Amino acid sequence: MDKPNFGLTGLAVMGQNLARNVARNGFPIVVHNRTEEKTAAFVNEFGHEGPLFASTTIEDFVAKLAPPRAIMIMVKAGAPVDQVIDSLVPLLDKGDLLIDGGNSLFTDTERRVKSLAAQGIRFLGTGVSGGEEGALNGPSIMPGGPEAGYKIVEPIFTKIAAQVDGTPCCTYIGDGGSGHYVKMVHNGIEYADMQLIAEAYDLLKNAAGLTNAQIADVFTEWNSGDLDSFLIEITSKIFQTVDTDTGNSLVDYVLDKAGQKGTGKWTSQSSLDLGVPVTGITEAVFARFLSAIKDERVAASHILSGPGTAFKGNVDQLIADIRDALYASKIVAYAQGFVQMHAAAVEHGWKLHPGEIATIWRGGCIIRARFLNRIKDAYDENPEIVNLMLAPYFNEALTRTQAGWRRTLKTAIELGIPVPAFSSSLAYYDAYRREWLPANLIQAQRDFFGAHTYERTDKEGIFHSQWGPASE
Ligand code: 6PG
User: How far is the first Cα of the chain from the last one, in angstroms, to the nearest whole number?
Assistant: First the structure.
């Protein structure tokens, strides 16, 4: 038999599931892990699923692959990726391809693409979304780097990816670190989406007074409309899950401290560098930080007071309003994410295709949602649209939902329930749609105390004034 040319190193769960997905689709694949026993056990257990071949040492792994080799690296982002690359490079031939399928920081990917290209090795920084289940049954795949490298693995990637309406959830993203950048923004949107759902939960529980079973029903119902998405679907299932130890709702036993591995924070950091207001994602990152200072919050809860009022309005109306607030804020979060990707593309010289990104996020990934079809349509209609909120479909949706969105915020503020992502999204919407903002005063203050100068509305030029009443 001819040697395979596709290999995968790093057999943690994501690596294992991706390798099984490749083999199940009939593509021969050689697998490798730092511990040989793990590789042998893996092939022993799953070898019957397809053409999976074990290797022992890294030398044996590379020797079992025919050039041009395509080697997927599935190890923890950061230094481990560099270590694996360094161990592979001396064994490779010019024209071979390395693929990093982890959540690497895009600047690391940019560096690796460049340094490996100088050695004749192609490198694809590839976002893979969908968690363990997606890796096995069809993830969303976001490959970035040299396009010629992508062509080597295109038949495999497009086959193992999730398929929506016959279209694979995988497309070539662009040069350099763009694949990992797009995956990073995907994760940032994931943070915003999760925070918005959590705020809806807080209001359903603490304003509307619903039980977990009722909350599950609300999410199930929402999942049949505009909000239809993976995250809403799993949220409903979470509220239906019973703790086997106590027989009560499991979610109530989960400590309210959110973890994070960094991709949301990176998205916010990059948005600050680019000067793009990505408020929804950033509030979601801050909300996780706030949740993490549990001890401080517990102490403060005995010291600081709130309004101490209960909701007295119509519960059905409130539930409908929360749904509208969630939908509208979600539109804002996605709009901001796409603006950020555009700004990054300009900054880094990437040719990103937002409609194609929306297309490959329709299935496989964590933020998959019916709504992404609408984003794709919006870019099909107008590829140059500067902000998705301006697309007729989303403009109409924001017009339709904003009364409920505003009422939701009023209720939350009256009751003292924190809704940072809902409120920052509305503030963004209200600021973005305004011709005039009070930044004239900020400019005047800057000029007053630091002669930072300002521009005028009535004539061209740069001005500096002596501020203060004429008598001073
Ligand atoms: C995905 C997920 C995946 C991972 C997140 C979790 O697209 O499949 O985003 O990459 O589950 O990175 O991130 P946090 O641990 O930061 O919440």
Answer: 92
